[in-house]
Write a structure and sequence with these properties.
Elements: H1 5-12, H2 16-23, H3 31-43, E1 54-61, H4 71-86, E2 90-97, H5 103-111, E3 116-121, H6 127-130, E4 140-143, E5 153-157, H7 159-172, E6 178-183, H8 188-203, E7 213-216, H9 220-231, E8 240-243, H10 246-258, E9 268-270, E10 287-289, H11 292-309, E11 316-319, E12 322-324
Helix pairs in contact: 1-2, 1-3, 2-3, 4-11, 7-8, 9-10
InterPro entries: HTH_LacI, LacI/GalR-like_sensor, Lambda_DNA-bd_dom_sf, Peripla_BP_I, Rhodanese-like_dom
Keywords: DNA-binding, Transcription, Transcription regulation
Domain Rhodanese: 163-196
Amino acid sequence: MKANIKKISELTGFSPATVSNALNNKRGVNKETAEKIRQTAREIGYLAEWHVSSIKLVMYRASGAIVNDSPFFSSLVAGVEAEARNFGFDTLVCNLYQHAADYDSQVEELVNDPSSALLILATELDSQEASRFQEALAPVVMLDNWYEDLNFNAVLIDNTDAASAAVRYLIEKGHRKIGHLKGSYGIKNFYYREEGYIRTLRESGLECDPEHTFLLTPSMEGACADMEALLQREPDLPTAFFADNDMIALGAIRALKQNGYNVPGDVSVVGFDDLPFCAISSPPLTTIKVYNREMGSAAVRRLMELVKYGDSYCTKVQVRSSFVERDSVRDLNGASQEA
């Protein structure tokens, strides 16, 4: 028999009206009964039959240090909204702050609403908090993060491979002392980028010198201030840096220039994201282009598959990036540099 309310009623022994009320999160059904009905609905694949009427894009913030009003996230949101319209859905953008007084009640409301499929911007979302969304009554897709220990569909950046491509480019340009401008906020994107940086140096037989890893705040102003403080110690600088994001790269470049260094003459820098102002920075920034709008579109398409067909399997989609060569890297081939 087709999975429907009548079938759930037969399997659970509850009336069709009670089943309908439980699945639509209406009052009057006790917690144990509602959970039994929902569990049966999940087991027979009734999730695909639920009448999702909207998409909620949850902008999760643990600190807000990463998820902010930068063009990266505004473009991603635009991609979500445009693709949702293609499917005839409205997008409701919800701001979820982990340290807000009503945080727990907001999570409960999101999890227990069967009418809204959830796209969760999970850049700052750790595994413990993400696990709370496993019991959501509507389909869920994680955006910009993935969890090895949790069973979620996800769309994210190819962080490790992209960082590796950036470091390989620097090596091809003759650089042998390559440092890392590392974001001080511990998100998984930065972890995977560091993994690509280290792996590529080691595969190329180059030293990964911890003295050349500078921990910087992941904002332009913060990175500039942190780099300024580090430069006051007159450190031994590498010939090039890979930065965890463009904000860090541009902030560090500003500090370097303020302290008399020429970029790229003295120090080369590669960023990550390709924010709009990278093309007009001084110098124009060589960087990794992330297709954030396309990420948003891909996440909506996967969400619509879940709405239509259910969640019998999970997918991890990594959207490929591309390399954008501008003017912030010096070609050292044929030039001498210290061993």
